[in-house]
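Onboarding guide, step 5: your first structure request.
Type a short instruction followed by the sequence, for example:

Predict the 3D structure of this protein.
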Amino acid sequence: MIISDSIVSIGRKENDMSHKKIIFILSLLVAIGIAFTPVIGIRHDADGIIYFGFPADMFVYYGNGGWSTSSLGPFFNIAFFYVIFLQLYNWITKKKLVKNIDK
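The system replies with structure tokens like these:
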């Protein structure tokens, strides 16, 4: 009994890790994709400086050809989208569980 319970819990942990990896990769791609989306992620400054990123700035392009990355912007954006996608995943799985229980 104890062995079977531990095997089941190990399977759940591996499954949890796989969906967390997928959510992380998805949040990374979405954060980078939105950073370069013209309407959402690009802001122009009066001095010709272009800021990329939403909700926080990830990359900054200066008019003279120089660029830089914001210090915590990429980490914040990835964490922001990770939390959103994780909440959506939990909401969908909970909804599926309730739907299966009702049947």
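Each response can be followed by summary notes, for example: The chain has one domain: 2-102.
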